[in-house]
Amino acid sequence: MPLIQVRTNITKEKLTRDVHLKFSARAAELMNKPEARVSVTVECGLDMCRGGSFEPVIEVHIAAIGVDCREKTQSVVAGLSELLHEQLGLPLERIVFKFSNLQPFEVGVNGNTM
């Protein structure tokens, strides 16, 4: 059950609900999870800088069970970076990812842990 946070200084007028939904669908596909189990929160219009620049930047934080090695995260980074680049025109170096590997007891839904 991936929990994904997308934080950016891009406005919500540019990062639309359509882009949000495309991101959710692509994340589910890349992580081999049913989209019904993927949660994506998008925070737009934040004061963010990277590398001493306030140019558009996106941070993607993904917390999920089983994201514990490069073999499981590389395709996710590549696929979601490509989507964000195509949809928003963002240079790849302005898209940053962070993964947190969760244990099943750290995730709960429907009144139960996984």
From TrEMBL:
Q: Which SUPFAM superfamilies match?
A: Tautomerase/MIF
The cellular location(s) given in this protein's UniProt record come to: Cytoplasm
Q: Which GO terms describe its molecular function?
A: D-dopachrome decarboxylase activity; phenylpyruvate tautomerase activity
Where on the tree of life does the source sit, at the highest rank?
Eukaryota
Q: Which InterPro entries match?
A: Macrophage_inhib_fac, Tautomerase/MIF_sf
What are the record keywords, sorted? Acetylation, Cytoplasm, Lyase, Melanin biosynthesis
In its keyword annotation, does this UniProt entry include Lyase? yes
Tell me its EC number(s), please.
4.1.1.84
Single Gene Ontology BP annotation: melanin biosynthetic process
**Where is it mainly found?**
cytoplasm
Answer yes or no on keyword Nucleus.
no
Query: Cellular component per GO?
Result: cytoplasm; extracellular space
Could you say which protein family the record assigns here? Belongs to the MIF family.
| Record text on subunit structure and interactions | Homotrimer.
Function text: Tautomerization of D-dopachrome with decarboxylation to give 5,6-dihydroxyindole (DHI).
Q: What is this protein called?
A: D-dopachrome decarboxylase
Source organism of the structure? Meganyctiphanes norvegica
